[in-house]
Write a structure and sequence with these properties.
Structural class: mainly alpha
CATH architecture: Up-down Bundle
Helix content: 55-70%
Strand order of the largest sheet: 1-2
Number of domains: 1
Shape: globular
Order of helices and strands: HEEHHEEHHHHHHHHHEEHHH
CATH class: Mainly Alpha
Length: 482
């Protein structure tokens, strides 16, 4: 690896995603890239921002399908699997040695270094499809929360019998416009402040949901619960019970999906020993979120029983205390504003790296124009970044408006992303890096874990597709209302 003197004089032109920016010698690391300043706590904030997203709101519904035994047990199992495979993935950030090897800046770089070109393409397709899908899911969720705020204030002003239905579409458009502006944040290294704000927002609305559920339980006005979840009977056939159980697994898998951006988060950590810091951050992040998941899922199920809604906060009605529900929904929107950017940045970086490599001499692609240059704040604009990121956000917004199936979208995204990105690639890269021989005890146990998680993902995918097929029978595109 080169020393700074090999490529730097008094200043350098470097940049992530192929966009050149000028840095002083002190502002770059030994690889000629912007110096990383991330810590365990900033990485934990990124993880919490990514993990406690819209998925937490669906956990009461998931618990209602699984029941008091299978529900919490499934949450703990997913948490343990996620933490374990995250530690495997963290060790693959540098290759071939986890401490002194060459850095891999993205998830795809890590797969390329350990598993070769073919699996890199498979990984890239899966990762970016999932990132794209998550941005659609977050746009849907944010619009639901914004519509809920408008609806609750309408009932408060006009009375509980007023007609307060409102379309989601204007709120999706507003969310999209805001994301166009925020998408001009150049890269992951500039996002720490946004992730910290978003993490606090996720705590706020999760605690609000838990508090409202506890109040409902104390009041005694609760739904019916059972050991096995919603029971088969007149309203629920055996086949439908199987499908909803599969969809619940998908919702829980989605709630733990952050491995697809783990390497990008790890690349913000200061060296050396990024893998040790990332492992600590993963334990802190996943443990924190699991506590919130258990609280939201269990108290939400205790409050609503088998009638637990797909979005927990909508189940408390739009009446009193309307201000508290409004506060929670505002927190959700603010959190998803940040989470949207956390998940978009790897996709942005991939496209911009490819285009700058394809046309390295095109100033349109690489040149930065200073817009604000003060002692406290500097901001530069890149024309290509402005145009393509705006188009991307517009496409996401249109697709979100055309298919707002909250629970089914979450389950499908969980199914698509959980097995390949959270389990398969980390396990296979770890086996390759550590040169674990086939059919040894460790190799066999890792492959059993691989296979079981594959079955779970397939089941979740089948359940979500079946649910979406049902929704399409009654849904009219671009006419969703709350």
């Amino acid at each position: 690896m080169s020393e700074k003197g090999d490529f730097c004089g008094e200043s350098c032109e470097v940049g992530s995603a192929g966009v050149k920016e000028r840095y002083t010698e002190e502002e770059v690391d030994d690889a000629g890239r912007p110096r990383r300043t991330g810590t365990v706590w900033t990485a934990s904030a990124h993880i919490i921002t990514a993990v406690i997203g819209s998925g937490v709101l669906s956990l009461a519904w998931a618990m209602a399908q699984l029941g008091w035994i299978a529900g919490p047990t499934t949450l703990f199992i997913f948490a343990l699997v996620t933490v374990y495979t995250s530690t495997l993935l963290a060790d693959c950030y540098r290759s071939p040695d986890p401490v002194f090897g060459k850095r891999n800046y993205t998830y795809m770089d890590t797969v390329r270094a350990n598993l070769g070109r073919t699996k890199t393409w498979i990984c890239g397709f899966t990762q970016y499809l999932n990132l794209f899908g998550i941005t659609i899911g977050y746009t849907i969720t944010a619009s639901i929360s914004m519509a809920a705020i408008k609806k609750s204030n309408c009932y408060h002003r006009k009375g509980h019998k007023a007609s307060c239905e409102t379309s989601d579409n204007p709120f999706m458009i507003a969310f999209g416009i805001l994301q166009i502006f925020l998408s001009q944040i150049p890269n992951f290294h500039k996002l720490s402040w946004l992730s910290i704000v978003a993490a606090f927002m996720s705590f706020a609305y999760s605690l609000t949901g838990v508090g409202l559920a506890i109040a409902k339980v104390i009041s005694g006005n609760t739904g019916k619960t059972s050991i096995n979840g919603e029971e088969i009977g007149v309203d629920l056939t055996e086949a439908r019970k199987v499908w909803t159980t599969f969809r619940a697994l998908g919702d829980i898998a989605f709630a733990y999906s952050y491995s697809l951006i783990l390497i990008e988060i790890q690349d913000t950590l200061r060296s050396p020993a990024e893998n040790k810091a990332m492992k600590k951050a993963s334990i802190i992040g996943v443990s924190t979120t699991t506590v919130f998941y258990i609280l939201c899922g269990c108290f939400g199920y205790a409050a609503f029983g088998k009638h637990a809604p797909g979005n927990m906060l909508t189940g408390f009605g739009f009446y009193e205390p309307f201000w508290l529900v409004d506060f929670a929904n505002v927190c959700i929107v603010v959190h998803l504003v940040g989470a949207f950017q956390v998940f978009c940045q790897p996709l942005y970086a991939a496209v911009e790296s490819w285009t700058s490599g394809k046309w390295p001499n095109a100033k349109f692609m690489t040149r930065e124009y200073p817009m604000i240059d003060t002692q406290y704040f500097k901001y530069k604009i890149n024309i290509f970044r402005l145009i393509w990121r705006t188009i991307f956000v517009a496409i996401v917004t249109v697709l979100a408006m055309s298919m707002p199936f909250f629970n089914d979208i979450l389950a499908l995204l969980g199914a698509i992303g959980f097995w390949p990105l959270t389990v398969y690639f980390p396990v296979e890269m770890y086996i390759s890096q550590k040169k674990i021989r086939p059919f040894t005890t460790k190799w066999t146990m890792l492959q059993i874990l691989n296979f079981i998680c594959l079955l779970v993902s397939l089941a979740a995918a089948c359940g979500s597709i079946q649910g979406m097929a049902e929704d399409l029978h009654v849904y009219k595109p671009f006419k969703s209302k709350q």
